[in-house]
Design brief:
about 40% helix; 10 helices; 8-stranded parallel beta sheet
């Protein structure tokens, strides 16, 4: 794939069913969709199959850059670590079944020993090779462990693995206090995907949570500068609309997806 293309993270239209999310994303003109393991599991528990999910994706012409997410891999030890890896194997298998390129590897909520981060992430990357899916390191601006670009990039470097890569996200850059200049730390080809969203002016960004995110261009984030820096790094891939806004969940999902596409097209066009 060359050039920037638009993707829909299904968290943006969370109330819709999995199959509806796929249909809506295709109808709104997105070229890709980010799926969640919990949605895939629920679909199977309700009598569906991952094969029919993959067929629906194909019918809509949608790629799957990522499935979300792997947890517990960074901070756990002993038996808890073994159980975390067993669950991650299940999630990698799901990701492979729907043709996903990456499984997002989320950091610990609480502060933990980041000196082992590279080794732990490398362990995930080797596990991913068994399934043909690359775990992608994520920093989260509101957690106590990996909350900046620099921390996430250090773990990627410490892993010393060809498949190592990072998720980039304006909300988490601003929420975690990263410098915009740190975007230049990460070559474009080491970015698994750029999530895209904005921060409102209703409260200090350092106090915001996922639910505060707003549509791109509706907030006060320096998105044009972030876009410029992403392009400067040579990023060529998907830019994915990712929000968790309850006000949007109460609206018609098709309308939100179409509006989101219009807002996305203000950037990377």
């Amino acid at each position: 794939m060359s050039g920037i293309q638009y993707c829909l993270n299904t968290s943006t239209i969370r109330p819709a069913s999995l199959m509806e999310k796929i249909r809506i994303a295709g109808a709104a003109g997105y070229r890709a969709i980010e799926l969640w393991n919990d949605d895939l599991s629920a679909h199977v528990q309700q009598g569906g199959t991952l094969a029919e999910v993959r067929r629906a994706l194909g019918d809509q012409g949608l790629q799957v850059p990522t499935v979300i997410a792997a947890f517990g891999w960074l901070e756990s030890t002993g038996e808890a670590h073994r159980k975390a890896l067993d669950e991650i194997k299940r999630r990698l298998e799901q990701a492979a079944a729907v043709g996903a390129r990456h499984l997002i590897a989320s950091p610990a909520m609480e502060a933990c020993d980041l000196s082992v981060g590279g080794a732990r992430y490398r362990e995930l990357l080797e596990l991913g090779r068994q399934f043909g899916v690359k775990p992608a390191m994520e920093y989260l601006g509101f957690v106590g462990s990996v909350y900046t670009i620099a921390q996430g990039w250090q773990i990627v470097q410490d892993a010393d693995h060809a498949d190592a890569c990072l998720i980039m996200d304006p909300f988490h850059i601003l929420r975690g206090g990263s410098s915009l200049a740190d975007i230049a730390l990460v070559p474009g080809d080491k970015v698994a995907i750029w999530h895209w969203n904005d921060v409102p002016s209703t409260k200090p960004v350092g106090q915001q949570s996922d639910e505060d995110r707003v549509l791109p261009g509706d907030g006060v984030g320096p998105l044009k500068e972030i876009e410029r820096l992403a392009r400067q790094q040579g990023y060529q891939g998907f830019v994915s609309l990712e929000l968790f806004n309850p006000a949007l969940w109460q609206r018609n999902s098709e309308e939100v997806a179409r509006l989101g596409m219009e807002k996305m097209q203000q950037f990377f066009a």
